[in-house]
Write a structure and sequence with these properties.
Distance between the termini: 37 Å
Number of strands: 0
CATH class: Mainly Alpha
Largest sheet: none
Strand content: under 5%
Mean pLDDT: 84
Order of helices and strands: HHHHH
Number of domains: 1
């Protein structure tokens, strides 16, 4: 019985660490996607923009991978925050791909910047707030 109780405690602890690691991975990927996007908005060099787009895509894939894992976790108690995070990310990504990046490619970096510091900044604040709610200050 003692081994069973210890096993349950260790399992619960391990699940919390996995979820914390996942949300920390999400936080890092989100920050990387945003940072590279902002660098792309400020760039006028096509080759540099192409490299930054690759980094944006890598960060986006990682964020989406982590969100999927978290949404599959049967032991989660934070469905509302995760769902809101996922929906906000989808809007953020759609605006990035359909408005910001096309503006950059067209040489209209000022328009891209306006969107990036407008609605995208609001979405970014919301996503960071949700990550904070999901994990507190447990990410370094």
């Amino acid at each position: 019985m003692k081994q069973f109780v210890i096993g349950v405690i260790l399992t619960i602890f391990a699940m919390q660490l996995v979820q914390a690691a996942n949300i920390c991975d999400a936080k890092i990927a989100l920050a990387n996607a945003r940072l590279n996007l902002m660098m792309m908005v400020m760039s006028t060099d096509k080759a540099e923009q192409d490299e930054l787009k690759i980094e944006i895509d890598k960060a986006s894939v990682e964020l989406e991978r982590v969100l999927k894992l978290m949404l599959r976790d049967e032991n989660r108690t934070d469905d509302a925050q995760l769902t809101t995070l996922q929906k906000t990310w989808a809007k953020f990504k759609n605006t990035r791909e359909t408005e910001i990046i096309p503006a950059i490619r067209a040489g209209n970096n000022a328009k891209a910047m306006q969107i990036a510091i407008g609605i995208q900044a609001k979405r970014m604040r919301l996503m960071n707030h949700l990550i904070q709610m999901l994990n507190g200050d447990n990410c370094n």
